[in-house]
Q: What sequence folds into this?
């Protein structure tokens, strides 16, 4: 099935690139969505079966693939709305490149979740850089060029780091006489690997993946990228692409578990996680650009995830749940951002306000999304965040817990003051009624559904999901 | 013979840290490409011939000829000034690169692995970190790209160390090389060159937080 999926995707992408007709374009993208869902449903019934040597739908991969299937549909829909409304100078060619890159990004993320070989994951990480850079450069402006240059350069270095890490990993295998680099073989032989090389390998691989994951050493490029990319693409960059980094770190950390290297890996992840939350707190209290603020909020959540992963216990379960819920919540903010921009034609906090007056449905949604993204109850993320705190407490990291809670309070303050300014503060100069575009309430439907779904998953988790997460946790414990 | 080539590579790093003109950077890149070509031939004795030819072709054609030539073309076309414009004096650069090499040697002395030649490790690590140093210490965008290519060369040396057992990894490295360089050089440097003449990182500071 996965081979069929890949071949189908390549054909669709070629079609999108060369096609000039709008209707055919719509049809091809719809066809892709059907194909993606077929893959998702097929993998549900073929759990833990290896296909084409390199791909296994294990529990973690399947969970992430399913949320990807869910998020991909509104992302592509809002992509259409974006191109129709935001950018009147759109040519068939640029539309083709936009959707081709979206499809390529979704595919490479989805397939990378399922790969069971570290080199194959690495190859798909490379492809995400390519597709993401085409999306960031969509508007062909000087600033987009700057964003894409920084993104490509930092991602190229990060990919090189992952590659160096893989080389070190192969050196650690050399002494033990292992040749197979698939994750299953690495997990089985983890105790035979040479700790010295394993340490270096984790350091490099983690640093490399931090560019996609959105963690401290290399998070910077991602922020510019999410700022400059069209919002539907930014939604994908801040959800499924971050999950790709998570998968990479999770699987590689799985190799270190129960070896002498585990403490080292933990220390690296804790430092990186704390610094990420710190950086997010510092920037979010003084930031004026709302789109960048949404991007920094992602950095904060990934910092929490990696902390949960590092301290272990219930934290690992919570980390996976947090990633899944974050994938549903964060895109809503980005989809909603488009409506804000249509009304105010600006992303600076100084130019916006009184949103309830101009777009009621969107304003209520934004309020709900704010509660969700800051993990206040009734948000779904509250459950997973609470479990991460619990794991920090149980593992006697009380001081760290205090610091994290303090930083999160700062983040809520920064986030809240900007969002409430947008929602309630009256504008100094009222917008002209005639200039405000009419925004149909139906455009917010998909966002409401995503938020409701995240709450449902957190408070009433289906048994299947709990079992899948528990299976995935077994890699670490 | 391999050792001589590798030591020559690290000497070229020292030279790179003090050279002032872009042209000499490009000449060093050509030299490094040729050194890698020779090292590949001497090291990968157990790899099948076709694969070896492919890798050697990449080092020779891509690293030693195509990339430096293309950069030269970009420099000429955009009339970039010939100075490298470092932020730090050359003497300090030289000191830092020396420290990097010493650090790599100390790191290597901690390892006890009879499967790896320490020379490869030292040269590779010092090349990678010198590349990073070049990126942060030079002002022009094109010197950033040169720094990145130096990192790639270091990675290539490291991959040669495991090349005999796992030729797949060397092939992946070749793929990385071509992919990243084409992406960085081919598409974007060309674009940046078209939009802003004499590109300087100071021009790339519009994306800010407020």
A:
């Amino acid at each position: 099935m996965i081979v069929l999926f890949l071949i189908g995707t390549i054909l669709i992408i070629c079609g999108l690139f060369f096609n000039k007709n709008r209707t055919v374009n719509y049809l091809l993208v719809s066809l892709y969505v059907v194909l993606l869902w077929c893959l998702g449903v097929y993998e549900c019934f073929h759990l833990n079966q290896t296909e084409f040597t390199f791909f296994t739908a294990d529990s973690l991969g399947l969970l992430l693939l399913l949320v990807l299937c869910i998020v991909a549909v509104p992302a592509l829909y809002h992509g259409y709305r974006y191109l129709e409304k935001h950018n009147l100078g759109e040519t068939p060619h640029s539309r083709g490149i936009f959707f081709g890159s979206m499809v390529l990004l979704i595919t490479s993320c989805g397939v990378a979740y399922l790969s069971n070989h570290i080199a194959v994951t690495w190859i798909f990480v490379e492809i995400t850089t390519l597709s993401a850079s085409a999306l960031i450069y969509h508007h062909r402006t000087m600033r987009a060029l700057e964003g894409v240059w920084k993104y490509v350069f930092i991602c190229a270095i990060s990919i090189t780091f992952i590659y160096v890490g893989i080389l070190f990993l192969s050196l650690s295998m050399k002494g033990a006489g292992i040749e197979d680099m698939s994750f299953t073989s690495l997990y089985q032989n983890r105790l035979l690997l040479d700790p010295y090389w394993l340490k270096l390998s984790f350091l490099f691989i983690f640093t490399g993946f931090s560019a996609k994951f959105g963690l401290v050493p290399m998070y910077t490029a991602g922020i510019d990228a999410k700022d400059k990319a069209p919002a539907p693409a930014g939604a994908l960059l801040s959800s499924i692409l971050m999950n790709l980094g998570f998968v990479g770190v999770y699987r590689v950390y799985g190799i270190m578990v129960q070896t002498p290297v585990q403490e080292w890996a933990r220390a690296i992840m804790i430092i990186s996680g704390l610094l990420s939350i710190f950086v997010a707190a510092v920037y979010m209290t003084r930031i004026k650009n709302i789109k960048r603020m949404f991007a920094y909020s992602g950095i904060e959540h990934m910092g929490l995830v990696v902390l949960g992963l590092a301290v272990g216990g219930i934290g690992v379960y919570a980390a996976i749940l947090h990633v899944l819920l974050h994938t549903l919540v964060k895109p809503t903010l980005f989809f909603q951002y488009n409506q804000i921009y249509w009304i105010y034609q600006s992303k600076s906090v100084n130019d916006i306000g009184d949103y309830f007056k101009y777009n009621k449905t969107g304003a209520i949604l934004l309020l709900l999304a704010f509660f969700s993204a800051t993990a206040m109850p009734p948000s779904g993320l509250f459950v997973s965040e609470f479990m991460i705190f619990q794991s920090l407490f149980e593992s006697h990291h009380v001081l760290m817990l205090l610091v994290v809670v303090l930083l999160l309070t700062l983040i809520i303050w920064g986030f809240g003051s900007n969002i409430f300014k947008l929602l309630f503060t009256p504008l100094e100069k009222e917008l002209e009624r005639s200039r405000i575009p009419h925004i149909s309430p139906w455009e917010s439907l998909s966002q409401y559904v995503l938020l409701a779904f995240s709450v449902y998953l957190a408070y009433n988790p289906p048994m299947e999901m709990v079992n899948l997460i528990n299976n995935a946790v077994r890699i670490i414990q | 013979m391999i050792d001589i080539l590798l030591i020559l590579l690290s000497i070229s790093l020292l030279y790179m840290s003090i050279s002032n003109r872009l042209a000499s950077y490009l000449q060093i890149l050509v030299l490094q490409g040729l050194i890698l070509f020779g090292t590949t031939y001497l090291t990968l004795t157990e790899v099948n011939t076709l694969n070896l030819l492919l890798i050697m072709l990449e080092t020779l054609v891509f690293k030693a000829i195509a990339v430096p030539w293309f950069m030269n073309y970009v420099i000429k076309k955009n009339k970039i000034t010939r100075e490298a414009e470092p932020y730090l004096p050359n003497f300090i650069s030289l000191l830092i690169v020396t420290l990097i090499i010493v650090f790599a040697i100390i790191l290597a002395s901690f390892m006890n692995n009879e499967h790896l030649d320490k020379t490869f490790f030292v040269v590779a690590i010092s090349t990678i970190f010198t590349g990073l140093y070049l990126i942060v210490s030079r002002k022009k965008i094109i010197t950033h790209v040169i720094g990145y290519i130096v990192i790639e060369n270091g990675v290539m040396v490291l991959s040669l160390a495991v090349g005999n057992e796992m030729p797949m990894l060397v092939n992946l490295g070749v793929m990385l090389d071509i992919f990243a360089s084409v992406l960085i050089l081919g598409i974007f440097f060309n674009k940046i060159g078209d939009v802003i003449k004499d590109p300087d990182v100071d021009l790339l500071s519009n994306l800010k937080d407020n």
About this structure: Residues 142-176 of chain A form the longest helix (35 residues). DSSP finds 20 helices and two strands in chain A. The mean pLDDT of chain A is 92.
